[in-house]
Specification:
498 residues, alpha+beta, 2-methylcitrate dehydratase PrpD, two-stranded antiparallel ribbon
C-alpha cells in the first residue's frame, strides 16, 4: 500500500491531475490485477448477505416505495429489482436505487469502521445493476465489487467525515463510481471524472442519523449508488467534474472537512497490488448498528445470569467515544429513550437494545423492534436504568489500526439493589473474524435462509444460492438472473410523480 498525503491547494498552486486523490483512486480502479481467491469467496458471501437482508425487508414501506419508483423506468436489457419477476427489468440507476434501499433498510449487512464509518455492501447494488444491464459476466463483476470495497475502505481509513457531521455516503459515491469503472474497464481519465462527480453530488449532512431518524437512513446510500451510476454515464459521454475535487481551494477538504491547513493520509494499493480490503470488513449477526453487535452478545450472556431484572439498580456501559456519542446517552437524543420512537431510532439506541437483548437473550430483526415490544413496562423500566460513558481506553482500541487490538464493544457494570455488582466486557462481536463464532459461508447461507423463510419459496432460495455460489463462472445471462422474485408481492397503492 502507498500512503498518499492529501491537502488543500490554492488556485495559484498547480496540482497535476496525476497527483490528485481522485486520479489515484481512478488508477487503482483501472489497474487490471488478479483477484485473490479469498476475495472472490468474500464477494460471494456479501452478495448472499445483501440478498438475505433485502428478502427480509422487501415488503417494508421504504423498499416498497423505492421499488414502485423504479418500476416505471423499464428498459431492456435493464437490471433486476429484488422481489419483482426476473424479466421485469428497469434502468440500472433505478435498480441501484430500489435494491440499495432494500439492502440498507434493516441495518443488517456488512460494516467497516476506522477513521469513519461505512457499510461497504452498499456498493454492490449499483455495480451489479450496471453489470446486468450491460451484459457482464461474474468474473468482471467480482472485480468491480472488490474495487468498490477497496476504495471505500481506504477512504474510511484515511478521512473522517463524522467529526464534521457529514454522512458516510460521501465515501460511497466515489467508491461505487470506481467500482463501476473497474467493472467496465474504463480508462483512468473517465473514472477520474466520475469519481469527482460522484463525490460532489453525494455529500450530505449526518442529520439523517440524528434526532428522530427517518427512513431516509435507508435511502441515503441507495441515492449515492444511483448518483454513481449516473456520474459514470456522464463521464463516459465526455462530461467532466469539479477539479481538484478533494484538494481545491473551494473544495471538499477546505470547506467540508478540516480546512485549508488539514492533512489527510489515504492508503491505496500500488500498481499491480491485489485489492484485498473486503477481507477487512465484517457483517452483522444482529439487525442493529454495528457498535451494538458485541454488546448484544454480552447482554445475552448477562441476561441469563440475572433471574429477576427488576432488582437491577443501574447499568453502566463503558465504551468508545463513538458508541457513547452516536448510539449512547452521550448523543443527548431524548428519542433514544422514547418507547414510541421509530425503528430507525431504536436501532441507534444501545440503551434500548441492551435492555431487550438482556430480557430476551437474543435479537430479532422484527420482533425486537415491534411497538408493543418497545412499550413493555418492564422493558422501559430497565431501559431507563442504562447509561453509557466514554472510556478513553475503549476509544483508543476503537481507533487502533492493529486488527488484533481493535475493539467495538465495552465493559458493562450492573449494580443490583442488594449492593452486589456484576461486571463483564467484550471486545468484538461473536460473528466478527476474531470473535467467538466467526461468520463463514455456512453462516451466510443460514442467514439468507432464515431471513428469506416465508418470503421466498424453497426453489427460489436454492436457485439464487446456486447462482451466487458459482459467481466466478457465471455468464452474462446468468448474472442477469442474480436476484429473486417474491410470489404475491403487493403494491402499496401510494401515488407520486412517476
Amino acid at each position: 500500500m502507498i500512503n498518499h498525503e492529501v491537502r488543500t491547494y490554492r488556485s495559484s498552486e498547480h496540482l497535476p491531475r496525476e497527483e490528485q486523490l481522485a486520479w489515484k483512486i481512478a488508477e487503482v480502479a483501472a489497474d487490471p490485477v488478479d483477484i485473490d481467491p479469498a476475495v472472490t469467496d468474500m464477494v460471494i458471501n456479501r452478495i448472499i448477505d445483501n440478498a438475505a437482508v433485502a428478502a427480509a425487508s422487501v415488503r417494508r414501506s421504504a423498499p416498497t416505495h423505492a421499488r414502485e419508483q423504479a418500476q416505471p423506468h423499464t428498459t431492456e436489457p435493464g437490471a433486476t429489482v429484488f422481489g419483482l419477476p426476473l424479466q421485469d427489468t428497469v434502468s440500472p440507476e433505478w435498480a441501484a436505487w430500489a435494491n440499495g434501499v432494500a439492502v440498507r433498510e434493516l441495518d443488517f449487512h456488512d460494516t467497516f469502521l476506522a477513521q469513519d464509518y461505512s457499510h461497504p455492501g452498499d456498493n454492490i447494488p449499483a455495480i451489479q445493476a450496471v453489470a446486468q444491464h450491460l451484459g457482464i459476466g461474474g468474473k468482471d463483476l467480482i472485480n468491480g465489487i472488490a474495487t468498490g470495497y477497496e476504495i471505500q475502505v481506504d477512504l474510511v481509513k484515511g478521512i473522517c467525515l463524522h467529526e464534521h457531521k457529514i454522512d458516510h455516503v460521501a465515501h460511497l459515491g466515489p467508491s461505487a463510481a470506481a467500482g463501476i469503472g473497474a467493472l467496465l474497464k474504463l480508462p483512468t481519465e473517465v473514472i477520474y471524472q466520475a469519481v469527482g462527480q460522484a463525490l460532489h453530488v453525494t455529500t450530505a449532512t449526518r442529520q439523517s442519523r440524528k434526532g428522530e431518524i427517518s427512513s431516509w437512513k435507508a435511502h441515503a446510500p441507495a441515492f449515492a449508488g444511483k448518483m454513481a451510476v449516473e456520474a459514470v454515464d456522464r463521464a463516459m459521454r465526455g462530461e467532466g467534474a469539479p477539479s481538484p475535487i478533494y484538494e481545491g481551494e473551494d473544495g471538499f477538504i477546505a470547506w467540508i472537512l478540516s480546512g485549508p491547513e488539514a492533512r489527510y493520509t489515504v492508503p491505496l494499493p500500488e500498481k499491480g497490488e491485489a485489492k484485498l480490503a473486503i477481507l477487512d470488513t465484517y457483517t452483522k449477526e444482529h439487525s442493529a448498528e454495528y457498535q451494538a453487535q458485541a454488546l448484544i452478545d454480552l447482554a445475552r450472556k448477562l441476561g441469563g445470569q440475572i433471574e429477576d431484572k427488576s432488582q437491577i439498580r443501574r447499568i453502566t456501559i463503558h465504551t468508545s467515544h463513538h458508541t457513547h456519542n452516536v448510539i449512547g446517552t452521550g448523543a443527548n437524543d431524548p428519542q433514544k429513550m422514547d418507547p414510541k420512537a421509530s425503528r430507525e431510532t431504536l436501532d441507534h439506541s444501545i440503551m434500548y437494545i441492551f435492555a431487550v437483548a438482556m430480557e430476551d437473550q437474543g435479537w430479532h430483526h422484527e420482533r425486537s423492534y415491534a411497538p408493543e415490544r418497545a412499550a413493555r413496562p418492564e422493558t422501559v423500566e430497565l431501559w431507563h436504568k442504562i447509561e453509557t460513558r466514554e472510556d478513553p481506553e475503549w476509544t483508543r482500541r476503537y481507533h487502533s489500526t492493529d486488527p488484533n487490538e481493535k475493539a467495538f464493544g465495552g465493559r458493562v457494570v450492573i449494580e443490583m439493589n442488594d449492593g452486589s455488582v456484576i461486571e463483564d466486557e467484550i471486545a468484538v462481536a461473536d460473528a466478527h473474524p476474531l470473535g467467538a463464532r466467526p461468520f463463514v459461508r455456512e453462516n451466510y447461507v443460514q442467514k439468507f435462509r432464515t431471513l428469506a423463510e416465508g418470503i421466498l419459496s424453497d426453489a427460489e432460495q436454492n436457485r439464487f444460492l446456486d447462482l451466487a455460489q458459482n459467481l466466478e463462472n457465471l455468464s452474462p445471462a446468468e448474472v442477469s438472473q442474480l436476484s429473486f422474485a417474491v410470489d404475491g408481492l403487493e403494491h402499496s397503492g401510494s401515488k407520486g410523480i412517476f
